[in-house]
Amino acid sequence: MDNDMINSTQAMAAIGPLGRVNRVLKATGPGLLMAAAAIGASHLVASTRAGAEFGWQLAWVIVAVNLLKYPFFAAGARYTAATGESLLHGYLQQGRRYLLLFTVLNTLAAIASTAGVAMLTAAMLTLFIPLSIDILAFIVLASSLLMLILGHYQLLDKVTKVVMLVLTITTLTAAALAFNAEPMIVDGFVSPSPWDWAHVGFLVAMMGWMPAPIEVSCWNSLWLLEKQKQQRVTQAQALFDFNLGYATTAVLAVVFLSLGTLVMHGSGEHFSASGAQFADQLITLYSQVLGSESRYLIAIVALLCIFSTTVTVIDGYSRTLALGWQLLVQQSNDKSSAWLTAIMVGVSLLGLGIILFFKGALLPLLQFVMTLAFMTTLIFAWLNYRLMTSERLAVADRYGTKMRLLSWLGMGYLLGFAGLFIYWKTLG
How is this protein situated with respect to the membrane (predicted)? Predict the structure, then answer.
């Protein structure tokens, strides 16, 4: 054991249990930011809708999807903690064409995803402000940009931890109360099967953003580098932070499904495609179990949740696009801050254009975004797997047999459902 390790061990022993917990919590951040990005459309919309329409039938699917995607998301924290570089640097080392492929697809995903989460946030705002979704979406995007440009990563890190804590407590409380609520099932109701041919589109959309698009692994990688500028983060701390964030997203995905199942399934109600009506239905779902007096409190929590998702989506996509194009054109770091700001503004404006095109139809927009995510996710998964099994990585840091097997199972499932969706869309 070398002197540094001895000193580190002695220091940890000296500060005591509370000090060690505090040090671990301070090292968290990137993983919780990833969770904040995930707990948006995939949870508030897809999981809740899955429970409302199909009951518990898709619970195991949500758990399986989170498990099968784990190796591809974990690559962000593991690769950066091991090498001190981002995943994008890893793609470039494998060949410029790999980074170019990622960056082009990521550009499309960035614009579509920004539109989706911004419209959902605007829909939540309609509960408080009597303006059209288009105008509110502009306000959401403008305020997100202002927060990111003035506050940078430090503010994003602090705000997200508070929002995640409040959202988790509120959602778990609502789910616990829902188990004791009277069932909403009407007489003669027969639960539909999610495995009917007509529901393939919804299944693909749900799995596309469950728990999040795989390119989020690159955000985690870049956020970890930002965190390391503030303090030293060990490999163990980085992996703990990622696993904490990922486990939170998986658990809450099932919790949101349970809310849809217990409060809405069998009631005869269906979520509206209109953004404003959908937001009202979602908050009504919560208030039915927490009490009508909690309606506006829940609305504020849900708004904070999806707003934090919007901010993290703009930040994460813009960081990866800025670095990706910077590496491709071999741009110097001197103008990286201005370049990042320009991309944030550009992505937001293009996202607003998509919102205007869909004219307030929230569910069709989100289904489009989620489906796009699913159809590109296999490529992102393959890039991460290729990197984590590359000989450029130290043997101890590469994926072992179990992670390789899980990765192949995950890519098999992604490929199978992608083929099924293409068949359903063209010939089915």
Answer: Multi-pass membrane protein
Give the residue from 119, 61, 114, 85 showing the smallest Cα distance to 275: 119
Compute, in degrees rounded to 10, the torsion defined by CA atoms 273, 114, 159, 72.
100
> In the chain, which residues have pLDDT < 50?
1-13
> Could you tell me if 310 and 118 are in contact, meaning their C-beta atoms sit under 8 angstroms apart?
yes
- Tell me if 4 is assigned to some domain: no
Residue found under tokens 């998702």: 309
Cα–Cα distance for residue pair 94/91, rounded to 1 Å: 5
Domain that holds residue 241: 42-426
pLDDT of residue 75: 94
CA atoms within 13 A on the CB side of 333: 0
Give me the CATH number covering residue 420. Answer: 1.20.1740.10
Domain assignment present for 21: no
Element (H, E) at 53: helix 48-54
315, 159 contact by CB (below 8 A): no
Quick one: three-class SS letters along 99-116? HHHHHHHHHHHHHHHHHH
Indicate whether 96 belongs to any domain. Answer: yes
Residue 11 forms part of a structural domain = no
- Tens digit of pLDDT for each residue in 374-420? 778 888 999 999 999 998 888 999 999 999 999 999 999 888 888 88
Confirm if 257 and 59 have CB atoms less than 8 A apart. Answer: yes
End-to-end CA distance of the chain: 63
β partners of residue 361: 274
Report the predicted TM-score, pTM, of the whole model to 2 decimal places. Answer: 0.82
DSSP 8-state symbol, 45: I
Q: How far is CA 297 from the centre of its chain?
A: 24
Q: Which of 31, 48, 147 is nearest to 366 (CA)?
A: 48
Indicate the Cα dihedral angle 127, 129, 135, 138, nearest 10°: -80
Instruction: Give 341-381 pLDDT, tens digit per residue.
Output: 899 999 999 999 998 888 777 778 877 887 877 778 888 99
Neighbour-count burial for 205-217, b at 16+ CB within 10 Å, e otherwise:
bbbbbbbbbbbbb
Q: Is 45 exposed, middle or buried (0-12, 13-18, 19+ CB in 10 A)?
A: buried
Closest residue by Cα to residue 254 from 411, 73, 71, 42: 42
Instruction: Provide the 8-state DSSP code for 361.
Output: B
pLDDT given for residue 4 in this prediction: 39
At 330 the three-state DSSP class reads coil
Backbone angles phi, psi at 274, to 5 degrees: -70, 135
**What values do phi and psi take at 128, rounded to 5?**
-115, -30
